[in-house]
Specification:
The complex is a heterodimer of chains A (282) and B (352). Chain A is mainly α and 282 residues long. In chain A, 77% of the residues lie in helices and 0% in strands. Chain A folds into two domains: 59 residues; 209 residues, MetI-like (MetI-like fold). Chain A contains 14 helices and no strands. The longest helix of chain A has 38 residues. The termini of chain A are far apart. In chain A, 41% of the residues are buried. With 352 residues, chain B is mostly helical. Chain B has a domain of 189 residues: MetI-like fold, CATH 1.10.3720.10. Chain B is globular. Classes of the chains: A mainly alpha (282), B mainly alpha (352). Chains A and B meet through helix 1, helix 4, helix 5, helix 6 and helix 7 of A and helix 3, helix 6, helix 7, helix 8 and helix 9 of B.
Chain lengths: 282, 352
């Protein structure tokens, strides 16, 4: 008995176990989602009579989706979410890149202090301060308007400042100098040179910020009470009341909310992995 | 007006200047590098003319020292700083001041009550209990880090369908929390996904998974493992893959098996990310909110610290007490971050 075949067999057994564990993990991840997808295609009777794993009679039964869209106000919710996303993403990009430009390209006395303000703020988790932030937002009279989440998403995103800051350092300063000699002022340089060259960082920020904003529940739950101002998270949350035990409608709503994320993920995988890894380690 | 620029026309003879009295040399003092005639000519002919029209500008200064330039960064920083102060620092300050009062969040009157709110948080058993719920999530995060580490190691080697498995493991992290809540409400409900799968495997149970505190908290913590493993996994995988491939080849040539490769190459390379994950896990398990709030509303002993704080502030109008609770949580998280920075000196944190 030579050692070589044993080790090869052990390796093969190890490989089989590895694949088995991966398949098990895949089942654990996908099964709960698949069951909800099946449920969303069933009729109310099928849900109450059949088991969770039973198959829908008509695979193209989209009636529950129509119910979710109309009775669940999901259409308005997608509109609100899009509105909030548009403004908060534009604002985050402008604010983050302006901060990074000012801090990286200028020398001024309070620079260290400004950076310290941003750095310390990363340590303050937003969940803890909402008790008092609510009073500030209330003071501006913005509670129950879409501007409350927009301002909060814009004003408390320090991670994107760091992503821009890291990227702007790789843009050679000679470009700024050359433009200055051509008579460009600081704003023109920011607008015409820095911002276009920041495109990869902007893409990262838009993707990770976009997904977290789309998924956020806490802020809209606290600040948007009116039913017609619901974002997809709060609109879906409200399914709990009127649809009670109507799992087919709730499932359709959940699938509708997950679907855009899946499409974005499949299209932008590489960006998403890098973006979230970058965002988390900042 | 601070210093005299070195290239003032009176003191320095510009070699490129053709003749004294010609208008061009006077353009030099405006900027620092304008002695190169080509750039002055090609770059800004109109400006040359403008300066020539005002010949006797008293002691011009360089762009770098002008007050306009010194003010420039503040034009860019004004809005970001205003937002930062308004939505982070003002709330923290007012939260601390509310925490010493009995304010209800609405009325103009508030009584100063000293540390009474803090005493309540630590002495009333029903308020203190939420800290024990964090224990479930802490245990769950340990499991989560272990699972993520295993799959990151496995998938750092070449495997079939590697990208598919990577995508599947990461995707739950991207899903909307409310959707996850509903998916798992159906998963755990009587006759739902879990019961059906168990029945299919031959185990019949009518255990109400969300029915008693222990089982409910274990189920909810399980959902949090399902949701967040993907992020840890991708962080670990990135760190492992940043190790140059030659290192593994060299180790293989030296006869190291996979366990030895894991122990001596992979573990050291992911240490920073591992410590980051641990700190995120601890602060995360202290501030759990979404999943239990959506799934159980904090019923059957699943209330967490943040759920309790939100209810105190927005349902029972106890802004003072809720602020004190939030201050305690903030202090805990700052303390943890400080401990982590002491334990793992992190050279990546750089101020500018």
């Amino acid at each position: 008995m030579t050692p070589a075949p044993t080790s090869r067999r052990r390796l093969r057994a190890g490989t089989v176990l590895t694949y088995l564990s991966l398949i098990a993990a895949t089942l654990v991840v996908l099964l709960p989602l698949a069951v909800v997808l099946l449920t969303s295609l069933k009729t109310a009777e099928e849900v109450s009579e059949g088991g969770a794993l039973s198959l829908p009679g008509d695979w193209l039964n989209f009636r529950n989706y129509a119910t979710a869209f109309t009775d669940g106000h999901l259409l308005a919710a997608f509109g609100n979410t899009a509105f909030i996303l548009l403004f908060s993403l534009a604002g985050t990009v402008i604010i983050g890149s302006m901060t990074a430009y000012a801090v990286d390209r200028f020398d001024f006395r309070a620079k260290k202090a400004v950076m310290a303000l941003f750095l310390v703020a990363t340590l303050v988790p937003a969940v803890t301060t909402q008790v008092a932030t609510f009073q500030v937002v209330n003071g501006f009279g913005l509670v129950d308007t879409r501007w409350a989440p927009i301002l909060l998403y814009m004003g408390t995103d320090i991670v994107s400042v760091y992503i821009f800051l890291q990227f702007i350092r790789s843009i050679p300063r000679s470009l700024d100098e050359a433009a200055r000699l051509d008579g460009a002022n600081a704003f023109t340089i920011y607008r015409k040179i820095i911002l276009p060259l920041l495109k990869p960082a902007i893409a990262t920020v838009v993707i990770i910020k976009g997904i977290t904003t789309y998924n956020d529940f806490y802020i809209p739950f606290l600040y948007l009470h009116s039913e017609d101002l619901g974002t997809i998270s709060t609109a879906l949350f409200r399914f709990k009341g009127p649809f009670g035990a109507h799992w087919e409608a709730i499932s359709a709503g959940a699938i509708l909310v997950i679907l855009p994320t899946l499409v974005v993920f499949l299209l932008l995988q590489r960006w998403i992995y890098n973006g979230f890894a970058q965002g988390a380690t900042k | 007006m601070t210093e005299k620029p070195p290239n003032s026309p009176r003191t320095v003879t510009d070699p490129s200047a053709p003749a004294p009295g010609a208008p061009r040399p006077r353009t030099a003092p405006g900027t620092t590098v304008l002695t190169a005639p080509a750039s002055a000519e090609a770059g800004a002919p109109t400006r040359t003319g403008a300066r020539a029209a005002a010949p006797r500008r008293p002691a011009p200064r360089s762009w770098r020292d002008s007050p306009l330039r010194r003010a420039t960064p503040w034009f860019f920083l004004a809005v970001p700083l205003a937002l930062l102060l308004t939505f982070t620092y003002v709330p923290v300050a007012s939260m601390i001041s509310y925490s010493f009062t009995d304010w209800d969040g609405v009325s103009p009157h508030r009584e100063f009550t000293g540390v009474d709110n803090y005493v309540q948080i630590f002495t009333r058993p029903e308020m203190f209990r939420v800290f024990f719920v964090s224990g479930y999530y802490l245990a769950a995060s340990a499991l989560q880090i272990g699972v993520a580490l295993y799959f990151a190691t496995v998938l750092s080697f070449n495997l079939r369908f590697r990208n598919f498995f990577k995508g599947v493991l990461f995707f739950p992290y991207l899903i909307n929390g409310v959707a996850i809540g509903f998916v798992f409400l159906y998963f755990f409900q009587d006759g739902g996904t879990l019961d059906s799968v168990l029945a299919w495997l031959g185990v019949t149970t009518d255990h109400p998974w969300l029915g008693d505190p222990t089982s409910a908290n274990l189920s909810l913590a399980g959902v949090s493992v399902w949701r967040f493993t993907g992020l840890n996994f991708v962080l670990f995988l990135g760190a492992i893959q940043s190790v140059p491939g030659e290192l593994y080849e060299a180790a293989q040539l030296d006869g190291a098996d996979r366990w030895q490769q894991f122990r001596h190459i992979i573990v050291p390379s992911i240490k920073p990310v591992l410590s980051l994950s641990v700190i995120l896990a601890i602060s995360g398990s202290l501030s759990v909110f979404e999943i239990p709030y959506i799934m159980t509303g904090g019923a059957t002993g699943t209330s967490t610290f943040v759920i309790q704080t939100v209810k105190l502030a927005f349902q029972f109008n106890k802004t003072g007490l809720a602020s004190a609770a939030a201050v305690v949580l903030l202090a805990l998280i700052l303390l943890l971050t400080w401990v982590q920075r002491r334990l793992v000196p992190d050279d990546k944190v750089d101020l500018v």
